[in-house]
Structure formats: C-alpha cells, structure tokens
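Thread: "does anyone have the structure for this chain?"

Original post by V.I.:
We have the sequence but no experimental structure in hand. Need at least a predicted one for the grant figures.
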Amino acid sequence: MAALFAPAADARYRDRRDAGRRLAERLAGLGKERPVVLGLARGGVAVAAEVAAALSAPLDVMVVRKLGAPFQPELGMGAIAEGGVRALNRELVEAIGLEGPMLDSIAAREQAELERRQRLYRDDRPPVELQGRTVILVDDGVATGYTAIAAARSARERGARRVVLAVPVGPPDAAERFAHEVDEFVCLEAPAGFFAVGAYYEHFDQVGDEEVARLLEVARAGVRVGGPEEAGADPPRASGGVDWSQVELRGVEIPADGAQLRGDLRVPPAPIGLVVFAHGSGSSRLSPRNVQVAAALNVSRLATLLFDLLSDEEAIDRHNVFDIPLLGRRLEAATRWAHQDPQLAALPIGYFGASTGAAAALCAAADLGSGIRAVVSRGGRPDLAADRLPEVTAPTLLIVGGADRGVIELNEQAHAALRCVKELAIVPGATHLFEEPGALEQVAALAGRWFAEQLRSP
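Reply from O.Q.:
Generated one for you, tokens below.
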C-alpha cells in the first residue's frame, strides 16, 4: 500500500468544504482513472462532495456505523458497513469479554440505523456501480480507523478494482492501520499531537441526514458519468463543462412571517441573473427534478435559489401546502431577501415554478410587477392563480408534458388569459413529472434559453 502524507502550510481547516478542496488538489492525478468517490456518512460526504466535483466523478455515500462498547458507547470496538461487512478491534472485544450474542445485539441495532440511512440518502436508487472501478473513500478524518476499514472491505466486496482512502487529517501511525486494507492512503495532515479530528477544523458542526441527502442530489444533477467500459476515455466533465469547484454553494435562511425558511443557493462565476424556485405540493427544496434543472441553469451562468416554501411545522398542515396566496408571499419574501444580499442584489430575478409552485410564482410575479423579469412553469397549475393571470407582466413560458392531457388544457386556458409575452411549450410523450428519458433535459434547455434571453434583455 502506498501512503502519502502531504503536510499543508496551515494544519487547521476552515470547515469540511475547505478540507475537501485541499484534498481534491492532492487527488487531481486520479481523475484520469475515472474514479467513483464515496463519502463516509455523515461528515465525510461534505468533504467528498468537493473531491467529486473537482474530479468530475460520480459521488455516492458509503454508510458506516461505529460499534460502541456497551458501558461506554463512545469507545469504538469496531464498525459495520454496507453489505453486512464488520471490522472489529479483536483485542478490545476480548479484553471486555463481550460475548457473541451481546456483540450481535449491538451490531443488529446499528445495522437497523445503517439501513434507515441507506433508504433516506438514496431514496430507493441503486448505489453507484463499483465493479472494476477505482474507488476513493473520503472521510473528514480518521482516528481509530475501524469505520474506514469497514468501508474499504465493503468497497472490495462490491467489486472495486482499486481502493484509495483519502482524509484531511489523521494520527501519524494511520498508514500502518490501513496497510493491508487499501491500495493507497492519502492524508494531508498527520500531526504528532493528534487527539481528535474536530480539533483541526475551525468549524466542525455535525452534518445532518438532510445535508447528506442534499449533497447527493446536487451531485446527481450536476455530473454526467459514463460506465466502466469507457475506462480508456477522458475523464467525464460536469454538465456543459462547467467547473463546479468555482460554483459557490451556500446554505441560507430566509425570514418570512416569523418563520425561517431553509434554502440552497448556488452562484456560478459572473452570473447573469438569479432564478428562484417554487416547488410543488408535497415537495421541498430537495426536489430531485428541481435540483437537476437548477444545475443546468448554473451551467448557463444563472444563480439558483431552491428554498422551502413552508417551515417544517407549517408543512404538517396540508391546507398550507395548497394556500397559493401564502406560497406567493413566501416567494416575495425570498425576493426581498435576495435584494438585500450583497452577492445577489444587482441580479435580475426570474421564477421557476413546478405544479402548485407555478401558481405561487405567477401570483408573486403579479404582485411584484417589473421586479420579476421572467417566469417558467413546469407541469404547472396556473388555474390556481386564474384571477391573477391578467396582472402578470413578466414574460412567461408554460412547459407541459405531451401526455399530461388534463394539465395541457389548464395551461392552454392560462396561456389565453395571460396578457404578457408568453409561450406554451409541449414536451412530446412526457407525463406530469417528466420522468421519461430526456424529458427533464428538454425542460432544462427550454427554461435556460428563456431565462437567458429575458434576464439579459433591458
């Protein structure tokens, strides 16, 4: 096993994103191997996202769980990983006299949590194929190393050809622990006085399940990857060749009616405008379809803001989900917030609404007049804003699936009621959610052209 230590000038990282970018610089040479990047859940995914973006590689999660001693849960006696893999500290297990049934009980409890996270993070999607691939396992640091060992064994069992373990920080003897587990170990910092991973970060907040799911959605939407049979080809590029390491991703909170609405802001270099998304009923800012469209708009130099129209408490009341005036006011609050943000204040703003979110976007556009420069509706319900349609002045594009018969009629009626610059686009064969191959890509292309034209115009 090759062990590579490359001490950085500063032994402390601002946060996991900073650590990921520095780690990506060290791993740049692996891009030619068309690797798969796996972030160890949960903290490792935030670091891995930066590595995957820099290498234009697919990102997936490797779910691992520490096995804590029964009398002291923080004392790790081993770990488990996906595929039923188990790595144990045999000396510790024997020293505390942990019998088989008790150990199995602890492992079963952690296995249940592991499987819950798998379902949450992947949403029934299959894991990325590892057969014959170079796999880069990324964590925010290593201490005892048993979770990393379990992850490496899991990757091997899934057919990985080569396994690289990469971390920002670890103890000086870490390489010895992984000598027989991985093909290469990359560690940027191995301080002699190492005692805890978090001590080498200025900000080391806990990474939640929702953040892991969001990072994976963004990665799935923004990177196009071929199969292992293309191993001799050039490394895949992010959609449109955009350098995702230069796209700023910022979690934000938007005040509205006493609530704090969570949002994800992405700003490419030299943006020409900002597109604010309004999700449909039963969805959120993590909508995979909206995330995919937003990534395509980022390629067109459009900043995007996906945010929750309701707080968690408000979303419990199903009446709120269909309260179009309320949702429209939330869009207006997001617009006011953007006008006050120094990075966004000068950008022209457009709305992208899906399903009921399209009705909210049209209501907000009617209220804000010339303050909104363009509206795009995807599979929208403009009929829910019928009385406001004549007041909309922003150029509006209505996109409907060709197989979405009832919604086509509703959009035809809305098109007739609108008095602004308007178009109705039908995507042949697409159903309401545009799940057919290539359908959502057509939506993104139509929206990108519309926003680019309208937001650039005076």
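V.I.: this helps a lot. The chain is about 35% helix and 25% strand.
O.Q.: and The chain has a mean pLDDT of 86.
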